[in-house]
Design goal:
alpha/beta; 15 strands; 2 domains; single chain; Rossmann fold; globular; seven-stranded mixed sheet; 16% strand; four-stranded antiparallel sheet
Length: 412
Amino acid sequence: MIVLDLFAGPGGWSHALAVLGVRDVGLEWDAAACKTRAAAGQLTVRADVAMYPTWPWVGRTHGVIASPPCQAWSMAGKRLGLLDQPLVHQAVEDLAHGRDTRHRLRVACRDARSLLAAEPMRFLHALHTVGEPEWVVMEEVPDVLPLWRQYAAILRTWGFSVWCGILNAADYGVPQTRRRAILLGSRVRTASPPSPTHAKVAEPESLFGPGRARWVGMAEALGWDTTDHAEPALCAGGGPGAGPEPFPSGAHQAHAAARDHGPWSRHGDKPARCRFRAADPAKAPPPTLTSKAHPWKWSLRSNNQTNATVRSADEPAGTLFFGYRANECTWVAEPAAAPPWSSQCDVVPEPIRITAREAGILQTFPADYPWRGTKGEQFSQIGNAVPPRLAAHLLAPHLRVPLNPDDFTLAA
């Protein structure tokens, strides 16, 4: 029996299933995502889900997973999918009754990708004719929740128990406050969301057992030394976290100086080679801080827009999204405490772009996950993927296997 993963992406669901001891077959069109999946040892059929026939899966599918592309609905895009909602609802209704009106409706859509959210119903209707699948799990951005409710109403008429709602990935140990619309359906058990394991504030032990742990912060997930102020780690690859992404020009030397000699290190009578912003570097006095001092408080800024989400490194990240903004998600520094000579020299390290490795870890992929493609393609895959740790919480009850959170070690 097969677990079918529609719109499989780079393997968020697949990695979770592998940790749980199950393999899926993914349908995915994007070439870079297919290369990533192949490098990760995942079974993949490269195909356009909207064009792929349903008959190969009938009579052999145990579970269906669907995370349709969210660009048409996401707040990071133009959100034309919201305007296309009536057409998508009509497509779902028609497909649930065996009527394929996709071509006519697609022509009327403002964003052709909008109708991809109706594709899971085409597969579910075909499988329902033979009493399959046993379970369904779907994930999308929060604005798709009304569509999931339509799916839920149809699935209930087919004998499924269904739950749908909004879950926050941070409540399940993901170092990211990523809110997603989730649908869970089962023919053999009562569908319900998994119990949260984490909370914004740690909870004390009670008569009912241990309380939930505090949300996982970025520094903890990345393995930064939190005994002092966390900072992006310098690596041989030219970027923090051993990733391939380069520092902005000169920032590599800046962080080498900060780590090895203190952030305000001077070589002879001139500042270390770096791109610090200084009020008047020539007048800056010799530094008094030692190499063990870490005076910077690091935060992650989601993009360069005025209203960008900025989170301290000891907090979870905001929702990671990339695409054309792959190089706008940056670590930014501010003084953790005012240096004694701040009135004479205002020195701040320049922002450092996040690496694919770091972004992947914040999505709970393994640190050595084999991302493939250009930098932009890698970031796009990461931003669109479901966090494997959240996926495992959603899948484990349907697979009747225990989930060990330690299997999702974040930083290597």
